[in-house]
Every structure is written in structure tokens, then in C-alpha cells.
Amino acid sequence: MLRIGINGFGRIGRAIFRINAKYPRFRVVAINDLDPNLENHAYLLKYDSIYGRFHGIVETDLERKRLKVDDKDIAFFSEPRVQDVPWQEHGVDIVIEASGVKENVLAGRELIRSGVRKMIVTHAPSEGVDKTIIFGVNENQYQDAQHQVIAASICDANAIAPILKVVHENFGVTGGFITTLHPWLPYQNLTDGSVRSISNPGHFWTDFALGRASTMSLIPKQTTAMKAVRQVLPEVGKCIEAISYRVPTAIVSSSDVTLMLDKKVTANEVNAVMEKTQKQHGRVFGYSTEDLVSIDHLAIEQSVVVDSRWTTVTSGGLCKLVLWYDNEWGFSNRVVDMVSLIEEHQAKVPANNEKSISSRLRRSVVRHSGRVPDHVD
């Protein structure tokens, strides 16, 4: 089982932890976050306003700086730079970079050189990564020997890109426009004010409207959704644009997708393809025929659900699709899937070419402390 470090224990970091705690696929052995208050992190893990109580025992050991979850000890750090965390001393194989800070992404190469095998980035940076992977689009392009810093992209792209791929392969897409409806995010305001950047600490957004009270208005804004889609679907993505609205809800996003199709089809034919895709790839794709609203899609594990009620095709070849996705839970499931994908590939590496965790940990302790440990965990 791979050993994981989480850098940034906010909404996405905790969602990843919760998902893995329910269905363990790896072991989290270290967490780093700017907030040094370990008791607060334990509290936020135990009680979540959206996903409810954590089903497990969460305790703290303040003297040893450990988060204790059920019978597992997890080392806790509060370093501003990801490369300053002693991941190697805890035998970390993969660091999940969930802080959203650009400089931490750019430090990925340094982490790899120091002994960490991989870094998974939970957004879509334009530099510093070897490959962006979106499940349902290009996960088969992952190359373990070549891709060390991997981006999992963003929630919108994880929902939109698989749908665009299916539609293009079946009907051809020659153009389009997408409007995303996205719940408020932590950096927005309850009352009017300036908005601080998360990716570039110390800087402020120049999109002044985004600083308005998030619970009172629909806030139109630019979106990086299609820029992120183009990283994995350049040919289709280049002919589609998008805008976004921040909406006064806490969770679950929607995308209103309008596409110009190359072939003459009916709405029933489009829905038939979507339903077939769901049956073949149910972990990524969902398909709904029910009269549901956004909150009904809370905690869905799929990247996207097609709401078949609103699929429409005009005589001029325009196709309308309505998509739903839990912008935290669905995306975090794909990050967990990324760890599994890496483990599957590394399992194929001959044992004599693979460094064991214990030997890497032993060398790391010697390098940092000058002593040989009696045992390794």
C-alpha cells in the first residue's frame, strides 16, 4: 500500500482523506498545512457542514504532533513550503499537492530529487507538471517512467472533458459555448470586500465583482475550465469558449453545454450514447432521468452526471446538454483514482528495479540524523 503525504488540508485535502478512510487504497502518513493548530484540523475532519460527521475516531497527540485516526498515527507539519516538509523521513511515496499555491507546484521537481516518487497536483497549472490526466479522457496516456509531477486538473474540466470526448467521437463537435454554475469557494466574501489570491499569496484578484457578498448574488466571472480542457483535448477545446457564474450555494456544480454538431442527430440518439457510456464507464460517467436538483447530486462519486431531461437538438445542429457534478467529492475521487493508477503501473515494475519503502526510509533517516534506525514503520 502506497504511503501518501497531503500538502494542504482544506476542502479537497480532507475530502481525499475521507474517501480513502471509507475505502482504503493507500495510507496517509503525513499532512502539512499552513494552519499550525492541529486540534482545529482534527475538529474540521470530524465535523463537516456538507458531508456530515467523520465515521471514525479522530484524536490528537500534541506533544508528538500527531493526528490519530482510528489506530493510525499521522505526522503533522506546518511548513509554508512543500519542499521543507520531511516527507522522506516518513517514507512518503506520493505527495498530493492540495494547497493551490503555485510555488508548491514548481517545487515538485525538488521533491522528486529528494526521494518522493510522485506529486499529484489538485488543479491545472500551466507549468511545472509532466502530464495532466483526466479520467475518461486520457488516463491511458500515463507513463510511469516519464510522468513524475501529474496534474489532476480541476472539477469543471473533469466533468466537461469526458463529455466532450464522447460527443466528438460519436457526432463531431465543430464549436460551442459552455456556462458553468459553481458554488462559492472559501476565498470569497460573506460581505463586500477585496479577494485575496490563493495561488499567489499576497496578491489580490482584479475581478472586483468576485469580491461581492457571495451569498447574495449570482456573480459572473471568467473561468479556466476550457483552458484546462484544452490541456487534454486540444482539438475539441480550441473551438469552444466558456464563462462561469458563482452561485449562492455551498456545493454541487452544473454546466450548461451548447455544442455545434457535425452530424444530424436527435436528442434521443445523444441520450442513448450517454446512457451506454454510463453503463460502460460508470465510475466516471453518470446518467439521470429523474427530476433532480443540485443537492440531490451531493457526494456522487462520478466526475459528471448527464441530466437527460434537458438534452435538446435543434434543426440547425445545436445540441444542449446539462451536467451535474459534486465539485469537491467527485473530483477528489479522481485524485484517489490517480493514486491507484500509479500503484497499478508501479506494480508492473520488476522487484529488483524498485526501491523498497523501508530502504528509502532507512537512507533518509541516516541522511537527516546521522543514525541508523532500529526499525522502520
Give an account of the 3D structure.
- This protein has 377 residues and is α/β, with parallel strands linked by helices.
- The protein contains ten helices and 19 strands.
- It has two domains: 3-129 and 331-369, 3-Layer(aba) Sandwich (Rossmann fold), CATH 3.40.50; 155-184 and 218-327, Dihydrodipicolinate Reductase, domain 2 (2-Layer Sandwich), CATH 3.30.360.10.
- The strands form three sheets. It has a nine-stranded mixed sheet with strand order 5-6-7-2-1-8-9-11-10, with helices on both faces.
- Helix 1 (11-22) crosses helix 9 and helix 5 crosses helix 8.
Features:
single chain, Rossmann fold, 9-stranded mixed β-sheet, Dihydrodipicolinate Reductase, domain 2, 8-stranded mixed β-sheet, alpha/beta, 377 residues
Topology:
Blueprint: E1 3-7, H1 11-22, E2 27-32, H2 38-46, E3 47-48, E4 52-53, E5 58-61, E6 66-69, E7 72-77, E8 94-97, H3 102-106, H4 108-114, E9 118-121, E10 131-132, E11 149-151, H5 155-171, E12 173-183, E13 219-221, H6 225-230, H7 234-237, E14 240-247, E15 253-261, H8 267-280, E16 285-288, E17 304-307, E18 312-313, E19 318-325, H9 329-347, H10 357-369
In a nutshell, what does this entry contain?
The chain has 377 residues and is an alpha/beta fold. 28% of the residues lie in helices and 24% in strands. Strand 1, helix 1 and strand 2 form a beta-alpha-beta unit.
